[in-house]
Design goal:
Layout: H1 7-18, E1 26-27, H2 33-40, H3 46-56, E2 60-64, E3 67-71, H4 82-89
Antiparallel strand pairs: 1-3, 2-3
């Protein structure tokens, strides 16, 4: 693999190609993204790269069970504050 993709190109391509059904994002573990990243970049840590991209606004991350969901900018679902939602349901907010 002489002409490797940049980390950013790899992450974007993975999100676009590994989505299933109508989902906009991919699970870092269950989609195979983390393992594919480590193989392609010979052991580099995908968590460091994706965390940095999220801080730069290049992707969005949402924590989920056993990993994170990766989204392209603007495609992540709106964050829901569970505490506020519970208070509304209880009629206290």
């Amino acid at each position: 693999m002489a002409n490797k993709l940049s980390h950013e190109e790899f992450v974007r391509l993975a999100i676009e190609k590994l989505r299933t059904g109508t989902f906009k994002g991919i699970h870092s573990v269950y989609s195979g993204f983390n393992e594919a990243f480590r193989v392609y970049y010979e052991g580099e840590d995908p968590i460091q790269v994706t965390t940095a991209f999220a801080a730069e606004g290049k992707i969005s991350l949402r924590p989920v069970r056993n990993g994170v969901m990766l989204y392209l900018p603007g495609e992540a679902p709106a964050a829901v504050n569970k505490g506020e939602q519970a208070l509304k349901t209880m009629g206290l907010a």
